[in-house]
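It is worth pausing here to work through a concrete case rather than discussing structure prediction in the abstract. The textbook approach is simple: state the sequence, then state the predicted structure, then interpret. We follow exactly that order.
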Amino acid sequence: MVFNLKWLLVFCASLVGIGICGALGLLHKLWETDSTMISYTILVLYLIVSPFVGWLTACAPSRIVEAYRGACRFVPELMTGLGMLGTVIGFLMMLGPTFGGLDAGNVKAMQTALGHMAAGMAVALTTTLVGLACSMVLQLQLVNLDLARS
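Step two, the predicted structure:
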């Protein structure tokens, strides 16, 4: 019972955090910033897997937990990997078309190049942030699940 309450506390706190981000307009900014939508993929994955981990925590002493344990351990790594993939894509967006035939004397071209660099860097940093944050919170829930099993 205590482990269920711990899971519920972590999950509700994360929902409150997502709600606060939405109220502050950060989710909309994330929508505008991350053109790859990897950040939203990670958030949706978190919102699907986290209640499943809560259900597993409620079933803790049973054999069902063992059946899904490996898959649940894979998801935080997947979230981190998606965040790192977004980082690489963001750097490619930042550096790809920016420097090909760039004339340093053309101010307009330099401003455009800096705009592409900023957009790519924003994708890189937001996907990394969302991937790492969701992965850490889900890892915390999985540690709680492991403690409930024993």
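Step three, interpretation. The chain is about 85% helix and 0% strand. The CA atoms of residues 12 and 18 lie 10 Å apart.
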